[in-house]
Amino acid sequence: MFHCLNLLDTEEEKDFLRELFETYKDEMAYTAYVILENKQDAEDMVQDTIVALIPYLHRMKEEPPEKNWNFIVTIIKNMSFNRYKKKKRQFERELPITEEILRDMVNVEFDAKVLQIEQRTVLMHFLGRMSETYKDVLLLRYYHGLSTAEIGKLLGKSQDTVRHIIYRAKKKLQSMMEEEDLFGSS
Questions:
Q1: Which end of the chain is more exposed for a tag (fewer CB within 10 A), N or C?
Q2: 50, 1 contact by CB (below 8 A)
Q3: pTM of whole model > 0.85?
Q4: How many domains does the chain have?
Q5: Within this chain, do residues 174 and 116 fall inside the same structural domain, yes or no?
Q6: What is the span of the domain harbouring residue 168?
Q7: Rounded to 10 degrees, what is the CA torsion of 71, 75, 77, 83?
Q8: Which residues are within 8 A (CB) of 132 and not within 5 positions of it... i.e. 6 or more apart?
C-alpha cells in the first residue's frame, strides 16, 4: 500500500487513499479470497485494486461511503475473476464489434428513458435480477459515469467487449422493464 502513496501528488490524496485502505482492506481481502481461494493472491489483489483506484480518487472524495464501497467491490471482484480465469487458462473469446455496428444496434430512445427514471430503487430491483457482469458494467457506466475505455481497463476487457456487454445488458434491462410496462404503452 505504501508504494502506492508515492504515485500521488498531494497529502490530501495520500490521506484519502490511506483512509480507503484502512476502511475497506478486510472486506476487499475477503471478497478477493472468496473468488481466488488463495490468501496471497487475495492480498495481491487488494494492492492491485488500490493502484487501480488512484485515477478515480478525485471522484471518490466527493461520494458517500456506500457508493465508494460499491465502486471498490466492483473493481476487486472483477479483477479477481480476471486473475482466476487467467490462472485457470479459461480465456473467453472476444467478439470483434466495431463502433459503427454498435451505433446501428443501440436504441438511443432507450438511453433517454433510463436516464428519466428517477427512482433508483426500481432500477436497482432490475439490476439485482441481472447477471453480475451485466450489473457491474451498467453500474460502472451509468452510476459511476465511467467511459467504456475506463471500464475496459478496470475489468481487463477490450473497449469493444465492454460496448458489447453494455449493449446486451441494456437490451436485457429494457426487456425486463417492458415486461413490467415501466415505460408505458406507446
A1: C
A2: yes
A3: no
A4: 2
A5: yes
A6: 99-179
A7: 180
A8: 77
